[in-house]
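tl;dr need the bound structure. longer version: we got a ligand (pyridoxal-5'-phosphate) that a collaborator sent over and nobodys looked at where it sits. i said id run it. heres the input, straight from their email, havent touched it
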Amino acid sequence: MGESVLTAPGVADAAALLRDAGLVRDGGRLGMAGASLEAIAARIGTPAYVYAAEPIRARYRELASAFAEIPHRIHYAVKANSTLAVLGLLADLGAGADIVSVGELERVRRAGIPLDQVVFSGVGKTEAELEVAVASGLSSINLESTGELELLERVVAGTGAAAPARVGIRINPDLSPVTHPYITTGSTGTKFGVTPAEALAMASRIGANPRLVLTSLAMHLGSQLLDPAPYRDGAVRLLELRERLTGRSRETVSAIDLGGGFGIRYLDEQPLEPARLAAAIAPVLRGTGLELHVEPGRFLVGSAGVLLTRVLYRKRSGRKTFVVVDAAMNDLLRPSHYQARHAVVEVVERGRPSAPVDIVGPVCESGDFLAIDQELPGVEPGELLVVLCVGAYGYAMASNYNTRARPPEVMIDRGRFAIARPRETIDHLMWLERRDPFADEAP
Ligand SMILES: *Cc1c(COP(=O)(O)O)cnc(C)c1O
């Protein structure tokens, strides 16, 4: 029996899509990394995020071995999936981290990622966040504006730290890779990074400050990039900029940080293979003595996660058929927020003919869909589906909209499964609230 749904337009290599996730069809029943998805649904309920550990490890090793010839460090972009069990797995592999808040800093600390392997990115770091970052001895605080440098100068002036704070400058290389406009970050007219001219001025200010040291020049082009060429072009621009540095900063820059954004297979994409990426970058870096830093998020965890959901109803409206499931846009925002397309497959294949349907959730919004015009066999209420490739920007973007509890997260490793985070309860959703805010004495 074929993967009926996966013969839909847009899915060229169904076997590869399943393999990326550690999914195996055995006698029509879908297993993941040696565990039964039906058993997980029966034990833990639906909706539920399910991750397989081994594909995450495989992706990390694939990247590390592709870059083996180049001195490098992999900083996992925590925002893609910040669940402690996922961070712990990456910590055990020796990953560093790219963080964007002190909340994420605390997560990586608890997961056991050494703080001197942590890069702090983001356009809007607050004074309190910079204080914590400086005190934590991070690998690099990546600055995104002169204003942020001024604030950091004030913060370090007030500390008695022995070692200078290591900083990077995020340059906007003005390259426009082809991706969705919400996830393009490396061209002018976006809020990210500074121009080369501004970077040069910032670099000489940093060089003149004994409490700061410029260690890296950074960029991040955007997300879900499939072509290595923009990384090579960006690396060239960062190296040109390094040549133009003057003063102490010229000597102290020891790394270039090419960011993340390595694209994965959602449907028929040809993923950005680490070997192709390394082949494009290595010649540019050879002989420079610089260390390469990369910050993949989606690439490491995206394919390794599925969202397990149960069909509630089938209904027709006009010419459309809707399959209403128990997962919604609050659980998985990507389809409605980015018009992202995810393959959806039946857990138990029953060989029924397929037809295009909209797969929608219970939230009161027309934008609440998981898939539009997706080929799906005629599934009936009570049956299980999985949404593929939701390990990145899945749970991490989930909300409590409509006062819906966020789903549990389940990890599968060595054929066994365990709860990494339980399903929220209704009490969790209200525990910080006050019915009578004026009656409370607490500030
Ligand atoms: C989001 C982000 C990343 C990771 O992006 P992915 O597409 O998940 O690889 C890396 N670096 C920075 C600065 C980011 O903002």
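gonna send this back to them w/ a short note. The first strand starts at residue 23 and ends at 26.
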